[in-house]
Design goal:
Blueprint (H helix, E strand, L loop, with lengths): L1 H38 L6 H28 L1
Helix pairs in contact: 1-2
């Protein structure tokens, strides 16, 4: 019974982490797009931030997913 509860907690933590990471990414990048648009609309520097952070976020989520899958199988 404890193993089932532990796996459920792990699944909940994983989904919460994924959701919060994506929400933070979207909210902060929307804010930065607005700042970029209001200050320097001729140069979209925010695209570098979005791309760099997106790569990092993707790798982090992939790592979390693989860790979750490995722990789930055990």
């Amino acid at each position: 019974m404890e193993l089932v509860e532990e796996k459920q907690k792990m699944k909940t933590r994983f989904s919460l982490h994924v959701t919060m990471s994506i929400v933070k990414y979207i909210v902060i990048n929307v804010f930065l797009v607005v700042v970029n648009w209001l200050t320097t609309p001729h140069y979209w520097w925010v695209l570098w931030v979005i791309a760099g952070w997106g790569v990092g976020l993707s790798l982090n989520l992939l790592s979390e997913y693989l860790t979750y899958k490995i722990n789930k199988e055990q």
